[in-house]
UniProtKB/TrEMBL annotation:
Taxonomic path: Bacteria, Bacillati, Actinomycetota, Actinomycetes, Catenulisporales
Protein name as catalogued: Polysaccharide deacetylase
Domain of life: Bacteria
Length: 271
C-alpha cells in the first residue's frame, strides 16, 4: 500500500471560540501536525448549535477582528497549518422553494460576490486557498467557478456525484466513491471530499474503534491519494463525557500519523 495524505480539518472557528481550548488542542492533540482551521468571518448568533453557543467567550464574532483567535490563526499559519474560509455567516437561509438551505446552496449573486471577496481578502491575509462550505454543501457550478479562480473546495460528495460514478448512494456506495482518485471522478478538479467527520455523536453511536476509523481514512488516503478527517472544536469543550472524545481522537491521530502523511488541505492539489 502506498502512503497517502490525510488532512485534519477543524471546523467552526470564529472570534468567540475559546482560544485557550485551541491552544490546548494544539498542545495535547495536534502536537505539531498541520491542521486545516476552517474559520467563519462573520459567524451568526446560534448558527453552530447549543454546545458551541454555550461555550462561546465574549468578544467580537468575526474570526478576522483583532483578538486572541486572530493571533492564533496567524501563529498556526506560520507553523504550516492552513486557514480555510468556512462560509460567511454559517447561517442557513430561506430558499425561494421554502425550506432553509445551507449558506452556499442556491446562492444568489450578491452572496457569491461577498464570498469571493472574502476569499480574496483571506488569501492576502492568511494565504487562504481552501473553502470549506458550511454543512459541506455548495452549489456545484459556484464551486467550479471558485476552482477556476485557483481555490480548493473541501466538501461532501453529493449523491448525484456518487451516481455519476456508477455507485449507489447507500453508505457503502458513498464509502466506495471516496476511494476513487480525483482524476477518476467527473468534474472534481481541486475539489476534495470529507472522508469522515468524527464527532462526539459518531464516537457514541457508531461503535467504531479508533483502529476501524483510522483504517477507513488510511484506505481512502492510499487508494484516492488523500483523505480528510473533520473535527469540531466544540466537541472538545470540557464537560461530562468529553474526556473520551479526547482519548479517541488522540489514539486516532497516532494511528493516522503512523500510516499516512499528515498535511494541510491546500497541498492536496500538488499531489
Ligand atoms: Zn461548520
Amino acid at each position: 500500500m502506498t502512503m497517502g495524505a490525510v488532512a485534519i480539518r477543524l471546523d467552526d472557528i470564529h472570534g468567540r471560540t475559546p482560544v485557550e481550548l485551541l491552544h490546548c488542542l494544539a498542545r495535547e492533540l495536534w502536537r505539531g501536525k498541520p491542521v486545516t482551521y476552517a474559520a467563519i468571518p462573520y459567524a451568526a448568533p446560534l448558527s453552530l448549535g447549543p454546545t458551541a453557543t454555550t461555550a462561546e467567550r465574549p468578544g467580537p464574532r468575526s474570526a478576522r477582528r483583532d483578538g486572541p483567535v486572530l493571533e492564533l490563526l496567524h501563529a498556526v499559519r506560520r507553523e504550516g497549518s492552513d486557514i480555510a474560509l468556512h462560509g460567511l455567516t454559517h447561517a442557513d437561509h430561506k430558499s425561494s422553494a421554502g425550506p432553509a438551505v445551507p449558506e452556499l446552496v442556491a446562492i444568489r449573486p450578491r452572496r457569491a460576490e461577498a464570498l469571493i471577496s472574502a476569499l480574496d481578502t483571506w488569501r492576502d491575509e492568511f494565504g487562504t486557498r481552501v473553502l470549506v462550505p458550511p454543512h459541506n454543501a455548495i452549489d456545484l457550478d459556484f464551486a467550479q467557478s471558485l476552482v477556476a479562480r485557483g481555490y480548493v473546495v473541501s466538501r461532501s460528495i453529493t449523491d448525484g456525484e456518487v451516481a455519476e460514478l456508477g455507485l449507489d448512494t447507500t453508505p457503502d456506495g458513498r464509502a466506495a466513491s471516496k476511494l476513487i482518485p480525483p482524476n477518476g471522478r467527473p468534474s472534481s478538479r481541486s475539489q476534495y471530499f470529507q472522508t469522515i467527520s468524527v464527532s462526539r455523536r459518531y464516537i457514541d453511536t457508531s461503535k467504531r474503534t479508533p483502529t476501524g476509523t483510522a483504517g477507513t481514512l488510511l484506505r481512502a488516503a492510499s487508494e484516492a491519494g488523500n483523505a480528510t478527517l473533520t473535527l469540531h472544536w466544540w466537541d472538545f469543550v470540557p464537560r461530562s463525557g468529553s474526556g473520551h472524545v479526547w482519548a479517541y481522537v488522540s489514539e486516532l491521530l497516532l494511528l493516522l500519523s503512523q500510516g499516512a502523511e499528515l498535511v494541510p488541505i491546500s497541498t492536496f492539489d500538488a499531489g
